Amino acid sequence: MKYYCIGIKGTGMSTLAQILSDLGNEVSGYDDATEYKFTQKGLDDRNIKIYYDNEHDIDKDTIVTYSVAFNEDHKELKRVKELGLTIKKYNEIVGEITTMFNTISVAGTHGKTSTSSMIRHILASSIGCSYFIGAGDGKINKENDIFVIESDEFNKHLLTYYPTNAIITNIEKEHMECYKDLEDIIETFTTFANHTKNTLITCGDNENCHKLKTTTKIIYYGFGEDNDVIIKNKKVSPEGENFDIYFKDQFYGNFTIPVYGDHMILNATAAITMCHLYNIDQDIIKESLKTFKNAKRRFAEEKVKNLIIIDDYAHHPTEISATLDAVRRKYPNKRLVAIFKPNTYSRTKDFKDEFITALSKADKVYLTEIDCNREKQEDYPGITSKLIIDGIENAEQISEDTISKLKNETDSVICFMSCAYVNHLIDALKNIINQD
Quick one: fold of 2-88? Predict the structure, then answer.
């Protein structure tokens, strides 16, 4: 079959294009962004053609899918409609793929990418798997029955997925532009849980996970003693986080992960529990986790002279709080500077106070203006980064043109956080530091 992916450089769309190609389909796509993005590597490796104009021919039997970042009045979307081509929703196509495999689906408000990446890493060291991870990373091996997929709740996408086994890492308010309230979110995850054929693994420390009304078998994990899988004796080391896992009262094993923070310990525990469910040997799980490298833009570190630069995908207050806690845990004696690039007007409006609380954990805070490609500023009058800046004592605005404000932060940890691209800010900072 032939597929045409509009917005093909987006993390999810890039991954979908890659696995459609691996399944033997002819794939091409369109994007507005002509500059190189990290999501492009897998497309280039597969010789998937990317168009930047609206003049090329598209065969009549091509199935079109598109990113929600593209408005209905976008010229390329309008063109494919005028051509009478079949258009399918992104999540509809992904849902069809989940029914073709023994699918492990990783859902939740936070931690999906890291958890699914850990599972993929462990399985790659043992029985192998195909995977669809939303950091522009996907691959299908048609000879392998297991398929690991990160499952997004945005626009209720995961309701089209039918996994064999699933994980829900946590449930919180998020994407409130798509949901009526928290109950609507819980109901959506409940429906997803009921789509799961065998077992659901979920975080028992998260009160909303206990509100899932499902007949699917549930395994709870977490730090709490009332969980089925219990984390004990955590300690930080130069190698990362070290902790014990108990199955109720029975000791299972001691594990080390080369990443930091309680949230990463929880993610690892979910991955360990899932791989145990698939009868992966404990020693393989243990050794695999020691060599785990986090997904792209998840606590990605770079040292420039004495400066530590961290690029992280955190964009929700809970994620920002967890990332800053992890920095403090790894670098307790360093000054911590947070730079946040808000991605949507709706999230800024809905979580203003929570952003203020989370970002206040840093010694110094900078925010860029809001960078949004799926919402219009005129629909959110008065919603700017200044709402957050005004609530933090030591905060101010920053841009690529004013990045020189950081020139004296020569021995600090500077943590850039956003689900939008911040490469230009990081490159500008590195240029300033390297000039001295």
Answer: Rossmann fold (3.40.50)
